[in-house]
């Protein structure tokens, strides 16, 4: 974990804002033309440059807990298969048989030794190698060299499985994370447990994602859910290349003023959100619970699919612990599904009706500003991250 000294420093910064009702700020407001939110051509360019060509954290390492673990899912209309081979190495494949393209694994998680295609029973190993062909003496010559599963570049780091969705590319995860890596490591994601996981439909990528990057809306839109615990409009903002760390303060923050620094327990009063470019938010909302959100653009600019994963620090055993974890899960589901995303759909109606030519991003919304600068960077002046 981060050292106590680092957390104390965050608490000091938050308390300094509390006294003056302040927050970390960008240098100026930013105007974003709404075409960046709803133009189909722009959307397709951005989706290609960012979501197809950069490394994405597609899964948590704990989702593939041991050799033989696998997970099949659809990511942005692509059938993807993640697996952990006998040696413990994580792989990512296009979930499509090399005979005539059927998915070799049905969606979901499991444990096994082989993937057997349900169409004509070709078999593949956990490393994607073609292992067997039904009726091979009648089929003709094919070999593992040419007919193994199509592998995607994949790396495992900081408790996450990183994948580039374009076959044949490569990436260096150390370069991609750079100084954000110790931040992610401090979360010790491999020590958490998955309590619940679900997919949610939501409004467009940027309309949805902007909401993960500020606390300005918490005391209004989330007055009855997560906003009950948060001081709205107080945020600490630190950047690490395209990645970001946001820190929100809990309403109990003022209690720290009554204590000496030696007695401080910053975890009780601060909430850290690690925002991994372009679409992963890891939000330690209440210390022993964590919300992990993967937001994937849909086929058009006005829809997303969000994979929401609720983690618990310790698997709930007692009824009381289970009730607490269920309550946390229900609260974050309500906040996103009944508050954030319905607001997003309404915003999109206004967009379609021509209500705004630009959106103005405030000085108090520095993380949104940072995000959009990097979207522009990768789309317009593409830096070689994957080659
Ligand atoms: S499509 Fe898989 S064995 Fe034919
Ligand atoms: Fe929200």
Index terms:
387 residues; alpha+beta; Naphthalene 1,2-dioxygenase Alpha Subunit, Chain A, domain 1; five-stranded antiparallel beta sheet; 11 helices; 29% helix; globular; binds fe (ii) ion
Biggest sheet, open or closed, and with what strands and sense?
Answer: 7 strands, antiparallel
Would you tell me the structural class of the helices and strands?
Answer: alpha+beta
> Cα-atom Rg, whole angstroms?
22 Å
What is the helix content? 25-40%
Distance N to C terminus: 33 Å
Number of helices: 11
Ligand catalogue: FE2/S2 (inorganic) cluster, fe (ii) ion
CATH superfamily of the largest domain: Naphthalene 1,2-dioxygenase Alpha Subunit, Chain A, domain 1
Mean pLDDT: 95
Domain count, please report it: 2
Write the CATH fold name of the largest domain: Naphthalene 1,2-dioxygenase Alpha Subunit, Chain A, domain 1
Q: Identify the strand order in the major beta sheet.
A: 13-19-18-17-16-15-14
**The CATH C-level class name of the largest domain:** Alpha Beta
**Low-confidence runs:** none
Strand content: 25-35%
| Molecular shape | globular
Number of strands: 20
CATH architecture of the largest domain: Alpha-Beta Complex
Short summary:
This protein is α+β, with helices and mostly antiparallel strands. The chain is built from eleven helices and 20 strands.
């Amino acid at each position: 974990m981060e050292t106590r000294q680092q957390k104390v420093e965050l608490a000091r910064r938050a308390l300094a804002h509390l006294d003056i009702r302040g927050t970390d700020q960008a240098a100026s407001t930013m105007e974003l033309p709404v075409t960046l939110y709803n133009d189909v051509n722009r959307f397709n360019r951005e989706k290609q440059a960012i979501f197809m060509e950069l490394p994405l954290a597609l899964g948590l390492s704990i989702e593939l807990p041991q050799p033989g673990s696998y997970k099949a899912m659809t990511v942005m209309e692509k059938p993807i298969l993640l697996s952990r081979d006998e040696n413990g190495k994580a792989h990512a494949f296009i979930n499509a048989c090399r005979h005539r393209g059927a998915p070799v694994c049905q969606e979901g998680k499991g444990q096994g030794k082989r993937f057997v295609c349900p169409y004509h029973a070709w078999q593949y190993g956990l490393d994607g190698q073609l292992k067997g062909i039904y009726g091979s003496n009648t089929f003709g010559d094919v070999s593992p060299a040419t007919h193994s599963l199509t592998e995607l570049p994949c790396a495992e780091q900081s408790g996450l499985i990183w994948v580039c969705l374009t076959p044949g590319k490569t990436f260096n995860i150390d370069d991609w994370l750079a100084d954000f890596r110790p931040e992610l490591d401090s979360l010790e994601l491999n020590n958490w447990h998955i309590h619940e996981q679900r997919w949610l439909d939501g409004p467009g990528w940027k309309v949805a994602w902007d909401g993960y990057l500020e606390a300005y809306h918490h005391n209004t839109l989330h007055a009855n859910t997560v906003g009950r615990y948060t001081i709205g409009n107080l945020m600490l903002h630190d950047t690490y290349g395209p990645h970001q760390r946001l820190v929100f303060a809990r309403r109990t923050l003022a209690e720290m003023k009554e204590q000496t620094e030696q007695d401080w327990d910053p975890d009780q009063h601060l909430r850290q959100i690690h925002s991994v470019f372009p679409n992963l938010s890891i939000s330690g909302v209440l210390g022993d619970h964590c919300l992990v959100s993967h937001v994937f653009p849909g086929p058009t600019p006005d829809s997303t699919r969000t994979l929401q994963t609720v983690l618990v620090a310790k698997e709930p055993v007692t009824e009381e612990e289970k009730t607490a974890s269920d309550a946390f899960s229900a609260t974050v589901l309500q906040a996103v599904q009944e508050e954030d995303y319905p607001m997003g759909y309404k915003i999109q109606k206004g967009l379609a009706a021509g209500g705004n030519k630009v959106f103005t991003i405030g000085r108090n919304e520095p993380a949104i500003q940072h995000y959009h600068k990097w979207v522009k960077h990768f789309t317009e002046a593409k830096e070689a991250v994957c080659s």
